[in-house]
C-alpha cells in the first residue's frame, strides 16, 4: 500500500477503508476482514459510528498484525471539552481493543451545546488530544470537517499541529479555500464520501467514456481522482467484491486533462458537509 508522510513524521496509507453506517455486526466485522484481506492497511471509524468494538473485532479476526494497520477514530460531538474528550479516548481504546490509535480527530467543529462557545470548545478538545498524544495513546492528531473560520480559530492555539483535515471532497465539492488553508498549515487532506457522484456519473456518457478509456469503473476513476489530487480517499462497502474492486486503483493515473474535466464537473447532489 502506498503511503505519504505526515508533518509529524508518521506514514499514512493513501487509501482508507471507511466504516460509516456499518453497524450491522456481521457486515461490519466481515467488511473490515475483507478490506484487510484485499490489502487495505488504513481503517477509519469514529465514536459517532457506534461500531468501534466491531471494527476492533474485525481487525483481530483478520490476522493482520496491529502494527501494520493505520487506525483512525474521532471525538464524538457530545465529548467536546477537555475531560470529556480525554475520557472518550480511553473508551475508544477499550472498545477497539488496542492500546493506541494511529490518528484521532475532532469529528465536527460546531456541535450541539457548543453553538455559542465553539471556539473555546475546540481549543479545549484539542488540548485533550495533545495530552493523549504526549501520553502515547494517540500517535497523530488532526481534524475533521474544519473549514477556514474553524482553522483560523484553532491553529494559533495548537502546541502540536494537526496533521490531517478530513473533509468532504469529490468532483462537484472541491472546498478550494479549505483545501488551500489546510495544506498551507501542513495538513494532509482526507476525502470522505469520494464516491458520492457515482449514481449521477453512471448516466453521463462522457464520464462512462472516460472510465472506458482507462478500462476502469467510474468508482475506480473517482478514487484515483482523489489520489491524483493528493487526497486520501476513504471508501466504504460491505461487499467483498466491491471492497476488492475499490482497492484496484494503483495501476493507472489520470491525465491532467481528465483531472480538469472532473474538477469542472457539475454535481447535482446535496451539499451538506
UniProtKB/TrEMBL annotation:
PROSITE patterns per record: ALDOKETO_REDUCTASE_1, ALDOKETO_REDUCTASE_2
Matches recorded under InterPro entries: AKR, Aldo/ket_reductase_CS, NAD(P)_OxRdtase_dom_sf, NADP_OxRdtase_dom
Binding site for substrate: 107
The NADP-dependent oxidoreductase domain, residue ranges: 15-263
Keywords: NADP, Oxidoreductase
Keyword 4Fe-4S applies: no
Active-site residues, as the UniProt record annotates them: 49 (proton donor)
SUPFAM superfamilies: NAD(P)-linked oxidoreductase
Single GO term (MF): oxidoreductase activity, acting on the CH-OH group of donors, NAD or NADP as acceptor
Site feature: Lowers pKa of active site Tyr: 74
Short name of any one Pfam family annotated for the protein: Aldo_ket_red
Family that this chain belongs to: Belongs to the aldo/keto reductase family.
Protein name: Aldo/keto reductase
Species the sequence originates in: Fundicoccus ignavus
Amino acid at each position: 500500500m502506498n503511503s505519504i508522510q505526515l508533518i509529524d513524521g508518521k506514514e499514512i496509507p493513501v487509501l482508507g477503508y471507511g466504516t460509516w453506517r456499518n453497524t450491522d455486526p456481521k457486515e461490519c466485522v466481515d467488511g473490515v476482514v475483507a478490506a484487510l484481506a484485499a490489502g487495505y492497511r488504513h481503517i477509519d471509524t469514529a465514536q459517532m459510528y457506534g461500531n468501534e468494538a466491531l471494527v476492533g473485532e474485525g481487525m483481530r479476526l483478520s490476522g493482520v498484525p496491529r502494527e501494520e494497520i493505520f487506525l483512525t477514530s474521532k471525538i464524538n460531538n457530545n465529548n467536546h471539552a477537555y475531560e470529556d474528550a480525554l475520557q472518550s479516548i480511553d473508551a475508544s481504546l477499550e472498545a477497539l481493543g488496542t492500546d493506541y490509535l494511529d490518528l484521532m480527530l475532532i469529528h465536527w467543529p460546531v456541535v450541539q451545546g457548543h453553538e455559542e462557545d465553539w471556539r473555546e470548545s475546540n481549543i479545549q478538545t484539542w488540548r485533550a488530544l495533545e495530552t493523549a498524544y504526549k501520553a502515547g495513546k494517540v500517535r497523530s492528531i488532526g481534524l475533521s470537517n474544519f473549514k477556514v473560520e474553524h482553522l483560523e480559530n484553532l491553529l494559533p492555539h495548537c502546541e502540536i499541529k494537526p496533521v490531517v483535515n478530513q473533509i468532504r471532497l469529490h468532483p462537484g465539492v472541491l472546498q478550494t479555500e479549505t483545501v488551500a488553508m489546510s495544506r498551507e498549515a501542513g495538513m494532509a487532506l482526507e476525502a470522505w464520501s469520494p464516491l458520492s457522484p457515482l449514481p449521477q456519473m453512471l448516466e453521463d456518457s462522457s464520464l462512462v467514456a472516460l472510465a472506458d478509456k482507462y478500462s476502469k469503473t467510474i468508482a475506480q476513476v473517482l478514487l484515483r481522482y482523489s489520489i491524483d489530487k493528493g487526497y486520501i480517499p476513504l471508501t466504504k462497502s460491505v461487499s467483498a467484491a466491491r471492497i476488492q474492486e475499490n482497492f484496484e486503483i494503483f495501476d493507472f493515473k489520470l491525465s491532467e486533462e481528465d483531472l480538469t474535466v472532473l474538477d469542472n464537473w457539475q454535481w447535482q447532489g446535496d451539499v451538506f458537509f
